[in-house]
Amino acid sequence: MNPEVFKPDGTRIEYDVGTIMPDGTRLSSDIYFPSKNRPGPYPAILYRTPYSNQMDYLVERGKYFSQNGYVVVCQDVRGRHDSAGEFIRWKHEFTDGDETINWIGNQEWCDGNVGMAGPSYLGYVQWQAACMENDFLKCIIPTVMSGDLHEAPHYQGGAFQLALNTTWSFRTDGKTMQTIDDYDWERLFYHLPVRDIPSAAGKNIPDFVEWVDNPDFGDYWDEINVINKLEAIKIPCLHIGGWYDLYPQGTLNLFKGMQERGGSKFARENQHVIIGPWVHNASETTTAGDIDFGVDSILDLKEIELSWFDKWLKDIPDSFEQSSPVKIFMMGSNEWRNEESWPPKNITNTPIYLHSNGNSNSASGDGLLSFDKPGKENSDVFTYNPMFPVPTKGGGNCCDPHIVNWGAFDQREVEARADILVYTSKTLTAEMEISGPIILKLFASTDCRDTDFTAKLVDVFPDGKAINLCDGIIRGRYRDSTKQQSLLNPGEVYEFTIDLYPTSNIFLPGHRIRLDISSSNFPRFDRNPNTGNEFGKDCELKTANQTIYHDEIFASHLLLPLKKHDQSI
C-alpha cells in the first residue's frame, strides 16, 4: 500500500504510486486528492517532469488544484528520481505520457477528464502526449516551450545553442538534479572540439553528442518534433510564453499552427496565447534582467490555469475570461493588450534600411537606420576573430542566469567593440509601435567558407541606455535551409535572412531604434570557427573578414511590424 498523508486542509497525498509501462518500466507519481467532503470521481491534472515531482512548483500546484476539486498526478519521467528506466531526453515521452493518461483515465477516482500543464520540459511532454490522440486528454497548458526542438532549444538559425545545451545536459546527467556551479564554465565553453565538452569535464553524456552529431534538420529531429504532428491534436490549448524566454517564436508558432492545422475544428477555434515580458521562469518576477516592468506585468498563472481547467474539464463555460485569443504585454508602455490574431491585424511589415559612410563600427560610428532607401554608399567591414567573440549580454537564454545572463540589459559595453556594426535611427518625435516577427534581410560577404551573422534589435533611451529587445543568428552554411548544408564562396555576396524572433514594444518619443550586427554571441551560441569543416569536430579557428552591403543594389533592411510610424526619422 502506498504511503499517504492527510493535510490539515483535508487533502490527501499518496506518494510513489507506480504506473507500469508496456515494457515493464515502473514510473513513480505523487498524487494529490481533494478532501473527502468533495465527492468523486474527479477530473485529473497530470504533470510529468525530469526535475523531481517534489519540486516546490509541483507541490504548490498539487495542493492548490486538489483544494479546487482536482486529482493532481505529479510523475517523474522515465529514468529520473523515483522512476525506473533510462532517461533519454525527449525520446520516451510520447508513449509514456499516453500510457500514463490511460492509467489515470481508468482509475475509479477519475471521471474520465484529464488535463496537463507545466513549463519547459513539462510543456513539451504535453505536446508529445497530445499527439497520441488520447480520448481522456481534454486540454493542455504548455508554458515556455517550442514545438521544434532543433530550432530551440538545441540550435537556432543553424548555430548550436552552446550554453543551454551544455549546462542543461550537465544538470540533468543522472537520476537526480546535479550541482554544476563548481565547473570552470569559461574553460568548458571555449573547449574544442565542441563534441568533446562533456568528456573534458569527465562526463559521458550521449544525448549531447547526438545533438552535436545531428546539426542538420533531418530524421533525428523529425522523429521527436511535434510541430510536424499538429494535425493529430484535437484539443484546446492555452499557450504561455515570454518575450525574453528562448521560446517566444516556438510558442507563437504552435499557437498559429494549431489555429491553422489543428486536427479538428473544435481545436482550431479554441487556441489561446499569453506572452508576457518574462524570462524562462514565466510570471515569477517583475524583472527581466535589469528592467523592471512593474507589478502589472505579473499574472497569477495558477488562477488562469484553474479557470482553463474548469472550462474544459468541469464544463464551466464562463470560467476562462480571456476575451480574445491573444493576450500580449506591450513593452515600452508596459500594458497588456488583447488582440484577435498574431501578428495583430493592423500591423504592416515595413522596411527600415541600413545606411553609413562605411564607418558604422561601434555605437560611436556613423551607422543609421532610415525608411529612405539607400543610394550609392560605402559598405561596412569588420573582422570576426573567434578567439575573441562578442560576449552574450542577456537575451533569450536559459537556464542558469548566474552562468550566462538572461533578459534585458544595457548593451553599451558590447556596442563599444569595433567588431559590432551599429545602426541607429534619429530620435523619434512620436511613439512607434511594433508587434510581430522581426526579420533582417542582410546582404553580406566573407572571405571564409562558413561564418555566422548575428543581429540584435535595441531600444535606445534618451539617456543613452541601449536595451535589447530580441536577437537572432544565421550560420552561413544554413542560409537556404537548416535541412541541408551549402558552404559559402569567399567574396560572393549573399542575402542572409536572420530571424530575430518576435517582440512587442512601443518606442516612445525621445527614443531611438537600433540594430547591432556582428558574427558571434558567445557563449549563448558556439563560435563559428570559419573553416567550413564538419561541425563539432573542429579544433581549427580562422579569422573572418566580413562585409555588409547597403546600397541601391544590395539594400540591407530590417522588416519592422509597425502599427504606425513617423517617417521623419
Return residue spans where pLDDT drops below 50 for at least 5 consecutive residues.
none
Mean pLDDT over the residues: 96
Neighbour order of strands in the largest sheet: 1-2-3-5-4-6-7-10-11-14-15
Q: What is the CATH architecture term of the domain at 348-564?
A: Sandwich
Instruction: Examine the coordinates and then state which fold CATH places here, giving the name of the CATH topology of the domain at 348-564.
Output: Jelly Rolls
CATH class of the domain at 348-564: Mainly Beta
- What separation lies between the terminal Cα atoms? 72 Å
The number of helical segments is 13
Helix amount: 10-25%
Describe the protein in words.
Among the domains are: 1-143, Rossmann fold; 348-564, Jelly Rolls (Sandwich). The model has no long low-confidence stretch (mean pLDDT 96). Helices cover 19% and strands 30% of the residues. The N and C termini lie far apart (72 Å). It is built from 13 helices and 26 strands. The strands form 5 sheets. It has an 11-stranded mixed sheet, sandwiched between helices. The chain has helices at residues 56-66, 93-105, 121-130, 150-154, 162-171, 185-190, 197-200, 206-213, 219-224, 248-261, 265-268, 301-313, 412-415, and strands at 4-6, 12-20, 26-33, 42-49, 71-76, 110-119, 137-143, 155-156, 159-160, 237-242, 271-276, 287-288, 291-292, 326-330, 335-339, 348-355, 368-370, 380-384, 421-424, 432-446, 452-460, 466-475, 494-507, 512-518, 544-549, 557-564. The chain is an alpha+beta fold and 569 residues long.
